[in-house]
Specification:
Layout (H helix, E strand, L loop, with lengths): L10 E4 L7 H7 L4 E6 L3 H4 L2 H11 L3 E5 L8 H14 L3 E6 L1 H15 L5 H6 L11 E5 L11 E6 L4 E6 L7 E4 L9 H19 L7 H23 L4 H14 L13 H13 L3 H16 L4 H12 L6 H18 L6 H4 L6 H11 L15 H10 L3
Parallel strand pairs: 1-8, 2-3, 2-4, 4-5, 5-8
Antiparallel strand pairs: 6-7
Helix pairs in contact: 1-3, 4-5, 7-8, 7-9, 7-11, 8-9, 10-11, 10-15, 11-13, 11-16, 12-13, 15-16
């Protein structure tokens, strides 16, 4: 194993009715007034929001709600939410939803605790270093982003079209309430996109130039195999607790850094996908599977043996020639994405074939106008990004 430092302070409360423990645990943190953040109307229609409100009130907590988080959360919403939270003097934030809601809550938490700074211009652009945040917890309703345990969050600036991530220890929530039953009402496509996101969070750590981290490899490979094994049941069997519980737990493990200890993260595919989401407002997980095979075919020669190993572990591909195995493994992953209804090219993503101008725009946004490279497994310059977008442009 290579050297690493690891701390994941999020307390996980997992299982049926986990969300009903929120009030008591939040009260124990010393909170008095909670801002409950959520997305669309589903948590209201299915009664979850009311149950949580009752739970908070029973625990002796006041609360206010803030709904309307978009699937690709935007800065303007966060700025308005910060003003509301400051005016109402909230001292705890509870996210009820998936990754977009939790990422929004993280930004709100930072903005409330550091109100003299702008959340985008100062904090998200890393012009200032913050050292405090508002306590945060989440009630997870979709297994996907892993934001409930991760040190990262993503926001979109709708004025500039930029979608940017921010990683730091302060992003780790205090608690994550995880009841697999709360994922039952999610649309099938969203569940599939969540599965794609979980796999990608692990793959983006698996492909690294750092060697000899065997325990980390086994954890990552086991997680990938487990998600793939349970994914079809999760999508095809109604209210299947076993498959939903396995995938929910894998989602948290995939992005809490456990699957990447001892090596540098890459996240090139995320960066390529973020620009698709920023311009076309497509679902995050779908943007990742759209780009993965193109990235893999463009990058596999960086470490053919690594791709060949994964092909064997996931798909039992056993070829004497490592390059043949690597390419067959990429093909098989692409077939798998199709089997769960996820796109692997622009047309399948629903944005159609793009012209040269848009391809260049995407590459510009990805590499800050060609001023930097993306990733470390195979550093991507602007022309590399153009080439990969072109490979997916059909």
């Amino acid at each position: 194993m290579k050297s690493f430092e690891y701390c994941c302070p999020t307390e996980i409360i997992f299982g049926k009715d986990a969300e009903l423990k929120a009030g008591k645990k939040i009260k124990a943190c010393g909170a008095s007034k909670v801002l409950v953040v959520y997305g669309g109307g589903s948590v209201k229609r299915n009664g979850l929001l009311d149950r949580i409100g009752t739970n908070l009130t029973t625990a002796g907590l006041q609360y206010i709600t803030l709904g309307g988080v978009k699937p690709n959360p935007v800065v303007s919403f966060v700025r308005d939410g910060i003003k509301l939270a400051l005016r109402e003097k909230v001292d705890f934030i509870l996210a009820v939803g998936g990754g977009s809601v939790i990422d929004t809550a993280k930004a709100l938490a930072h903005g409330v605790a550091n109100s003299k700074y702008d959340i985008w211009d100062d904090i998200w652009q890393k012009k200032v270093e913050i050292h405090k945040t508002t306590p945060l917890a989440s009630v997870l309703t979709l297994a996907a982003a892993g934001s409930e345990t991760s040190d990262s969050a993503v926001l979109t600036n709708e004025e500039t079209g930029q979608k940017r991530g921010l990683s730091m220890v302060l992003n780790r929530p205090r608690m994550a309430f995880m009841n697999p039953e709360l994922t039952y009402s999610a649309p099938k496509f969203q569940v599939a996109c969540g599965i794609g996101d979980i796999l990608m969070h692990t793959l983006e750590r698996y492909f690294s130039k750092d060697k000899d981290n065997y325990m980390t490899d086994f954890i990552a490979e086991g997680l990938l195999k487990n998600v793939i094994a349970f994914s079809h049941d999760a999508l095809e069997k109604e209210n299947d607790y076993l498959s939903r519980s396995e995938i929910m737990y894998c989602g948290s493990l995939s992005h809490c850094d456990l699957t990447g200890l001892g090596r540098q993260k890459d996240f090139s595919v995320h960066k390529l996908g973020h620009e698709l989401s920023g311009k076309f407002d497509v679902t995050h997980g779908a943007s990742l599977t759209t780009m993965w095979a193109s990235w893999a075919r463009y990058s596999y020669k960086t470490d053919i043996a690594r791709f060949a190993r994964l092909a064997n572990v996931l798909w039992q591909i056993d070829e004497k020639d490592a390059e043949t195995a690597a390419l067959k493994g990429i093909d098989k992953m692409e077939e798998y994405f199709h089997s769960i209804g996820l796109p692997t090219c622009f047309s399948e993503l629903g944005i159609g074939v793009q012209d040269e101008k848009n391809i260049s725009y995407l590459a510009d946004m990805c590499t800050d106008g060609g001023s930097k490279t993306v990733g470390n497994f195979k550093p991507i310059a602007k022309q590399d990004a153009i080439n990969m977008y072109k490979m997916a442009n059909h």
